[in-house]
Amino acid sequence: MSTQTEVVQPPPAEARAPAASVASRLRVTRRGIQIALGCIWLLDGILQFQSFMYTHRFLTVIVEPTAEGQPGFIREPILTFAHFYAHDMTLWNTLSAEIQVAIGLGLIVSRKSVKVALLFSYGWAFVVWWFGEGFATLFSGAPVSPLMGAPGAVLVYGLIGLLVWPTKREGTRSAADGGLLGDVGARVIWSVIWLEAAVLWLLNVDRSKNAISEQLKGMAEASPHWISTHDESLSHSLAGHGTTVATGLAVLSVLIAAGVWTRLRVPTLVVAMVLALAYWYFGQALGGPFWAGEATDVNTGPLLVLLALTLWPARPSRQRSTERSAQAAERRLSTA
């Protein structure tokens, strides 16, 4: 009798559980994403205080070039903004930096200030995406490739903010599940971004045989030696193979867009994060040129990683795991 009792008693959850997977070990919360996003906003604000941003070269090197090749309704407001901004660089640049610092601190310091900070971030992200990035030049004749930062970091800032908007709902599937758009909305945003990347890779400007090689060569010229060496080496290796590489990256982007809707969600997110970081290192020079004092943000790579983490499957709580173990034991007992 005692032997039978030992067989049907539910064993401890720890003894029954298989080796924890990467997904089950990594716990991503909505509040954690909010704080991470706040840190990036705070860094952007600090970068805006660099002395370069107070010179007219900030406008001629960073802002005005985004108007080139754009439709008139995008180009003219950018140039008008640059002309207005130039009248008092000290005032407007300081105000811009302070807004970003305030958004960052609002997201970091207290749950009570998160909603206000996010509301300001949505409006500011739109302003910067238009007047500072020219909608990432997506509507110009030569849009920025995903390697170089499309669709623009500040757009992804705003989208992540939407996904982690504080609500009373506690999501069970991911950090985004309890947010404003839910887990499904987060996957839609994810898929749109990566499908857009696929489309950009298939455009002639990014798919020509030397397009990727030339992009890497251009970034190598503005990067420190320890990055430029790798960029130059990769640029040389890819010379003449741009069409093949761009097509492969387009296909991979489509698979990443679709993968979050399947059981391969975790592998898909891992591949996407690795690719985003590869873009960040080789094409975006780790968000540089910090070393030249001209960077206005961290660029898109880290933001795509943070977006991936909002979709990371939630780790089952210990209580739910214990309950499932008990239920399984009861089923075995009833059939014994």
Uncertain runs with pLDDT below 50, 5 residues or more? 1-20, 318-323
Count of structural domains: 1
> What is the number of beta strands?
0
- The percentage of residues in β strands lies in under 5%
In DSSP terms (H or I, runs of 4 or more residues), the helix count works out at 17
* Cα shape: globular
Specify the biggest β-sheet. none
Q: Which bin fits the share of residues in helices? A: 55-70%
| Average pLDDT reading | 87
* Spatial extent as radius of gyration: 24 Å
Order of helices and strands: HHHHHHHHHHHHHHHHH
Task: Please sum up the structure shown.
The chain has 336 residues and is mainly α. 66% of the residues lie in helices and 0% in strands.
